[in-house]
């Protein structure tokens, strides 16, 4: 912008700095989404331990375009809970709004990745 307005010429060091900044932006992996439902991010968060209940985990889903978030608590970190959360909260929410949820981004934890023929979350996604 500044160069176009003033007509000044960038130095070699300035050009290198701009190229490095562009490479870092790509390396960081910024996510661009087109519309609501284009990409959702799902993750499991360890909440803590409740006496007489045990460990508590939170399944969280965030639409990366609108930042709308949904969550549900579970007592285990099993793949079936990840699938249940999508089936119980996420899919009905988007269906109610008339929006298709097209993609899901996870951290590839064991509750999301496994053998596609036996892993509950993978089987749910195949449906």
Compact description:
The mean pLDDT is 88. The chain has 127 residues and is of the alpha+beta class.
Task: State the low-pLDDT regions, or none.
Answer: none
- Look at the structure and name the CATH superfamily of the largest domain: Ribonuclease H-like superfamily/Ribonuclease H
Beta-strand residue fraction:
15-25%
CATH class of the largest domain: Alpha Beta
What is the succession of H and E elements? Answer: HHEEEHEH
Number of strands: 4
Q: In total, how many domains does the architecture comprise?
A: 2
Question: Which of globular, elongated, flat, extended, rod-shaped describes the shape?
Answer: elongated
Structural write-up:
The protein has about 130 residues and is an alpha+beta fold. It has two domains: about 1-30, no CATH class; about 40-125, 2-Layer Sandwich (Nucleotidyltransferase, domain 5), CATH 3.30.420.10. The chain is about 40% helix and about 25% strand. It has helices at about 1-5, 10-30, 80-95, 120-125, and strands spanning about 40-50, 55-65, 70-75, 105. A four-stranded mixed β-sheet has the order 3-2-1-4. It is elongated, with a radius of gyration of 21 Å. The relative contact order is 0.14.
């Amino acid at each position: 912008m500044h160069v176009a307005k003033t007509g000044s010429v960038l130095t070699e060091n300035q050009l290198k700095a701009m190229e490095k900044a562009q490479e870092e932006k790509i390396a960081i992996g910024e996510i661009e989404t087109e519309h609501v439902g284009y990409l959702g991010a799902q993750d499991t968060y360890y909440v803590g331990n409740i006496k007489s209940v045990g460990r508590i985990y939170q399944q969280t889903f965030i639409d990366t375009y609108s930042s709308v978030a949904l969550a549900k608590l579970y007592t285990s970190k099993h793949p079936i809970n990840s699938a249940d959360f999508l089936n119980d909260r996420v899919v009905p929410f988007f269906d109610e709004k008339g929006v298709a949820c097209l993609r899901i981004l996870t951290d590839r934890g064991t509750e999301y990745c496994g053998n596609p023929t036996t892993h509950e979350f993978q089987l749910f996604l195949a449906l």
